[in-house]
Amino acid sequence: MPPTLTLPRNDPRQYDDLADTWWDPFGPFAMLHWIAEARAQLIPPATSTDAVLVDLACGAGLMAPHAAGRGYTHIGVDITASALRQAQERGVATAHADVLRLPLKDESADVVTAGEILEHVTDLDQLIKESSRVLKPGGTLIIDTIADTALGRFLAVTVAERIPGGAPPGIHDPALFVNRRALVEAYARHGVRLRLRGLRPSVRDAIAWRSGRSTRVRMLPMRMTSVLFQGMGRKESP
């Protein structure tokens, strides 16, 4: 039987309903913890004392423990106030705002991360424009999202919504999953050359997590990008 949905797919009110589960390592956001760690591993060390990391759709600040110590002022942007309060508790400077209209100056960020948000917005071009706008020339962009493929839809929705640690039922609208070629081309138009690679959980770690013997699951890179993928790029100087 398919999961019973109480809200429309991709409705952000779901994050308020699940507010108490953000930091549960065995809860519905478990995989977001694993992906946040993998995302943070791509953040380069800061090269100045005033370096800024902008974390789009930061949620409850899941990336904060992994980004700490890299030398950045960590600014998180999200539309869910209940999540931002938890991010603040983890040392994130927060902005309650829509990622499609960032309250940040042009070229103000040394690093921009957009983790698990591209597949949630209804105007992807605007998010690409905004994330590129606030990034300094020479700055680093890091993204992760779900591919607009039959396999991506099957694993991220049909399967993931039915297994422990998978996506909460209804959290994704598969119609918003991301065309990889179009994504790379759109960022290139804004001066960001994006390189993609796939991600998958370590099978050994996932078994240990499922049995309650570990709270950490490593996300491993792979060549196939047709389900979950990362992108990393640098903004070219004018």
**How many domains, in number, for the residues?**
1
Largest sheet: 8 strands, mixed
Q: Please count the beta strands (DSSP E, at least 2 residues each).
A: 8
Let me know the average pLDDT.
95
Number of helices: 8
The CATH architecture name reads: 3-Layer(aba) Sandwich
Molecular shape: globular
The percent of residues in helical segments reads 25-40%
- Rg for CA atoms: 17 Å
- Structural class based on helices, strands and sheet pairing: alpha/beta
Strand order of the largest sheet: 3-2-1-4-5-8-6-7
| CATH topology-level fold name | Rossmann fold
- CATH superfamily annotation: Vaccinia Virus protein VP39
Beta content? 15-25%
Can you write the helix and strand succession as a string? Answer: HHEHEHEEHEHHEHEE
What distinguishing features does this structure have?
single chain; 238 residues; Rossmann fold; 8 strands; 28% helix; 24% strand; globular
Describe this structure in words.
This protein is of the alpha/beta class. The chain has a single domain, classed as Vaccinia Virus protein VP39 (Rossmann fold), CATH 3.40.50.150. The protein is built from eight helices and eight strands, in the order H-H-E-H-E-H-E-E-H-E-H-H-E-H-E-E. Helix 4 links the parallel strand 2 and strand 3. The chain is globular.
Question: Summarize this, please?
Answer:
By secondary structure, this protein is an alpha/beta fold. It has 8 helices and 8 strands. It has one domain: 3-Layer(aba) Sandwich (Rossmann fold), CATH 3.40.50.
